[in-house]
Amino acid sequence: MHLGLILPELTLLVFAIAVILVDLVTQKKEVLVWVSLFGIVISAGFTLGMWGWGSYAIFNNQMAVDSFAIFFKLLFLGIAALVILASVDYTAKFANFRGEYHALVLLAALGMMLMAATTSLISIYIAIELTSISLYILVGLLKDAKSTEASLKYLLLGAVASAVMLYGMALVFGFTGEVGLGEIARVVQGMSLATLLASPAFMVGIVLMIAGFGFKMAAIPFHMWVPDVYEGAPTPITAYLSVASKAAGFALVLRVFYSAFGFPDWLSLNWGIIFAVLSAIGMTVGNVAAIPQTNIKRMLGYSSVAQAGYLLVGVATVGLSAAADVVGRSSVLFFLASYALTNMGAFIAIIAISDKLKSDQISDYSGMGKRAPLLALGLTLCLISLIGMPPAAGFMAKFYIFSGAVQHGLLWLVIIAVINSVISAYYYLRVVKVMWLGEPASAEKVPSSGALKLALALSCFGVLLLGILPGIVMRLAEIAAKMFGF
Fold first, then answer.
1. What angle do CA 219, 223, 228 make, to 5 degrees?
2. How many angstroms separate the Cα of 201 from the Cα of each of 110, 183, 208, 237, 473?
3. How much is the pLDDT for 486?
4. Global pTM?
């Protein structure tokens, strides 16, 4: 029965191996795209079939199969499919490693799916490392100076973050004697405040775990890898990092901190305040640092740090809200879905434009509205969504997450977030101005493959759909937020 409940993950693993084997025997490398997408579709089918089954703890409480995990599994599979579609032309830059590229994208998605489902400190660490190792390799796949430097920085800083997180887990295990999130929660709830305060190692362990997870979320002050890695990595992998890795980190934080440290109330209040402070600093530093950037990938890197700050508003709300209140949790899930579509759309357009220009400089995007109007229009829509302007998804995402925070006494944080949203409009709209009002350096059109156009169309359609009709996804997010945790 347990094997049947992990069919989505097993399917991705089988197809990752199949991609490598097919790569060895065929000269038509475009087949790898279809094998990868076929694996994703089958995995998504198995995942959808589990929706509404209820909650199951499997493999001796190492993993959970619930609506929360299923929501994120579908999100990660969708992101992986968009990345593969957008990479059809780009993979020519590492023609000898196309098989490895597609297999690693699938393995990274597998790791993220496990991250959303894990309910034990041991399985959490294994899932994080599976994801991280796949991404370390993908970042350096171009094998040029920038890509190699980015991969090395990501590897070294990621190893430090993993060590810090693992030490934090060891301290929590030493205090509670348990590795399962549910068991840790029961031990903590059974102890008095005086007992918990008499063991500062436990609190240090929680702080160290926040630091390790913060690296995955690209949250302040664990963001130092973001601009260099985003700039040096292959652009499809930059997109993958900016949305999938971040979403996996937030999924993990929500499950761990709600399930293991959600009670007693004073404990959740304390980590809620920690996340609120990190949120305020993160969105401010991210937006201010993005203003002077001239490279669009670095700009979106710092933008990603700011977006993590907005998301932490929702995580802080989870810490400050009652256990039965799903407002904070569901708003984070909706924000992650809208952000994934928005940032993927932006990077898909950048893949096509930068590949033609051989440059990521914002100034070189001048007049792109005349050379590639559809690409420029798609990028404009996504940048408007990142600001949080209607009718794009970003507006509804910020509305839900900010309204939930106000309801739970975080008005001061929402004021800071709104001010930062106004600040962000400057550097986002600067790109829009350059594309539509600048003079093109050439009249030559910007070509793109049908697969990339499809990926961009799907992303933009999703951005508009979630902005105009958010109720469907928000309802799914509410169901998912109610189901996770034991």
1. 145
2. 33, 18, 10, 38, 40
3. 40
4. 0.94
